[in-house]
Amino acid sequence: MNLLPHKSWNVWSAKNKEKVRKEEEKYKGVEEKEKQRIARAEQEARYNLLRSKAKKRKEKEKGEEDDEEDDGEGQQRKRARPGIGDETTESVNPLAVGVVPSTLPSEHLNLFANFVEKNSSRPLGGNPEYEEEKRAQELKQKQRETTYLAQSSAEAKKGDSKPWYQKKADTKTIYAGLTQVQQE
Prior knowledge:
The chain is an all-alpha fold. Among the domains are: 18-66; 127-157. It is built from five helices and two strands; from the N terminus they run αββαααα. A hairpin with a 5-residue loop joins β1 and β2 (76-77).
């Protein structure tokens, strides 16, 4: 008897297939909107960057006109400023900005670089007490690993302290304890 087609959780039922298809379309639509939103934000960021660069360039050109000097023969010459008028500087076409992929830096941003440089005299390892505890634990673990099954716990300790069952008993105290028990 085949009951699977009658179950609501059947993956292959037409109802569930349609439900999955609709959810996938909905997800694709949401994903596409998110991509468009991100692209628009990047485009605006690049546009604002180019706009600020153009504004700075105009200010520098204005300042350059003020810096023109008379060289004594009635001719004017401009002061040389790096980056302005050079062929080495790149010109960006603002119309092509929307086509260019993100130019934002994709490198890791280290927020604590100044802090590390200031405290470079202190080793990065940090806490000496923690390091000492860690070394002690490692030593203890090493001793556990090197202790063989044939060794007794007294041999592993490498000391004079023996467990109670290996110590020689004082026979006088044993007999004294027995006589007390017998008398009672």
